[in-house]
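Reopening this one. Same input as before:
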Amino acid sequence: MTLVLLAAGLRSDASHKPPRGLIAFIGTGVATRDESFAKFEAALRQRHPELARSFDLGLFRASAGDDAGIRDAVGRALQAHARLLVTPTGRTSTVAARLAKGTPLVFATYSDPIASGVRDAMQTSSMATTGVALADQLHAKRLEILRDALPHLREVAVLADRDWVQEYDPDNRLGRMAAHIGLRTTVVLAENISELEALMTDPATRRFDAWYIPPTYIAYLAQRQLIAHLKRLGKPAMHATVGEVEAGAAMAYAQDSAFAYDALADLAARVCQGEFAGAIPVQTPQRFTLALRTDAGDRIAPAVVRRADRVY
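Same output, byte for byte:
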């Protein structure tokens, strides 16, 4: 069931004429609290309090991964005459872009917005959409840093789930990148914790000199177990988030996505103030962090330690 909530402080006034506009947030959080909606509301309230004079903020909730529910949520938002749709995930953005019918859309997505049909160009577009593209394209850079940190490495296991393999084609793309810098990569698959346990206890995995852990669902789901196995095996690894290093991983090269909610609020304000969404370039991460541990076992090359933004 889709729910519509008016955010406190952006509440309609029946005596106000003309009618207030509606910013419709298509959320997929749990029933008790939608974290994405809360973060967007806080950013909008802090950065653009003037919008409270002419716009309400509404939450139209659907279940994550439920395309029918997302279509229903978008449909209800359009029926409520939303002036702007805000979609915080790749799936909600893709569905909303198909149904928007000219209603402007501000999106955040880890998928390629062009390939998913959310936008037809990154700089300027004929579509009434703009947003934040967070697709991670740092795989080659991470392998390069891993090689620089530990020059003796040759065989690298790439842990992934099937969705990432299907989307990214790492055997082809990542394999070519690795070969260019003297590494050989082998993709190993795990969809859940039980599959990861079987993989990491298989004696065959000991042949790898190191591991690359791209930002996939299995890396998020089994972070604690994965880090523990890598420590047990005594194998270095390159991860994709600073949080993994804080949890005990050896190193990570991460893109800074903390700007996303502030960017969504700014983009929403620009569209609500009359700019055509397609004329606003899509924003992408501009800051990156190299984090590492000097107590992770293998001695990391001093030149890489000096390059690090965070050393634990």
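So the earlier flakiness isn't reproducible anymore. For the record, Residues 1-5, 7-16 have pLDDT under 50 and may be disordered.
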